[in-house]
Design brief:
Largest sheet: 4 strands, antiparallel
Order of helices and strands: EEHEEEEEEEEHEEEEEEHE
Structural class: alpha+beta
Helix content: 10-25%
Radius of gyration: 34 Å
Strand content: 35-45%
Shape: flat
Number of strands: 17
Length: 256
């Protein structure tokens, strides 16, 4: 309570002023939120949990063998020590490949259960936790590649679209002996000749189908993407080069 004085007709009048508390939404500029109000609210009530993909074990087929190469550590100076990456070799019936493991990642092989698992030094560090699951996915793709192989099927949809695999090319020179070339006829005035990368096998079971096979998933998928670049699927007539189970939603034709 506060008192103030006023003068009226020569008389001094003393009045008492009552304090009025306004709601917070009426005075937003003067409102100071409390600690509980400033605390961020979650949109979910479930407990946050991290991915456990990196810690999951990978089953090894009977005809696949793994061998870890431990390189000697190199010293840059008397105080700083650099640990090089370790190399994991994967041998299988379809070929051999290798994978680089970061220095902070360890490798455990269960000979009885035919399983392999990866571990990191400190799972609280973000970079180690991120590369844990990524490296595990790479290793699984390598094991699957040397045992069963990776494939990509491309479908040529369009009038007159054809594809063949040729031993020679006119517009492209070979990069290694025995290299093959995929020749595309997809609406251009000249055929498109694409060299098949090393480690990838290309064939055409049908004139409108291209089958790519290889032990490296990255090489197979990247070459399939290069072929698709020449005729991307368009949404009005549905023509183009489709990879695997790719589909496209058709749009209504534009009417002027």
């Amino acid at each position: 309570m506060a008192a103030f004085r006023t003068w009226k007709h020569g008389l001094r009048i003393t009045q008492k002023a009552t304090s009025i508390t306004l709601p917070d939404f009426l005075v937003p500029a003067l409102y100071k939120p409390t600690v509980s109000a400033t605390r961020s609210r979650s949109f979910t009530t479930s407990v946050p949990s991290f991915s456990r993909i990196g810690a999951a074990a990978i089953a090894i087929p009977p005809d696949v063998h793994l061998h870890l190469l431990e390189p000697p550590s190199k010293r840059k100076s008397a105080t700083v020590r650099i640990e090089p990456a370790k190399t994991l070799e994967i041998h299988g019936p379809l070929g051999n490949t290798s994978l680089q493991l970061p220095p902070y990642m360890s490798y455990a092989l269960d000979q009885e259960g035919k399983k392999v698992s990866l571990n990191v030094l400190d799972s609280e560090q973000r970079n180690q936790r991120e590369m844990w699951g990524t490296t595990r996915a790479y290793l699984q793709n390598h094991i699957l590649g040397v045992s069963e192989g990776h494939t990509a099927i491309l479908r040529l949809v369009g009038v007159g679209y054809r594809a063949t695999v040729e031993p020679t090319a006119i517009t492209v020179s070979p990069e290694y002996p025995g290299q093959q070339f995929v020749s595309l006829k997809v609406g251009y005035s000249h055929p498109i000749e694409l060299p098949v990368p090393l480690g990838v096998k290309a064939s055409t079971p049908l004139p409108t189908r291209i089958l790519l096979e290889g032990i490296d998933k990255e090489d197979v998928k990247s070459f399939a993407a290069k072929i698709r670049e020449w005729r991307k699927p368009e949404p009005y007539k549905g023509k183009g080069i489709f990879v695997n189970e790719e589909t496209i939603k058709l749009k209504a034709k534009k009417i002027k």
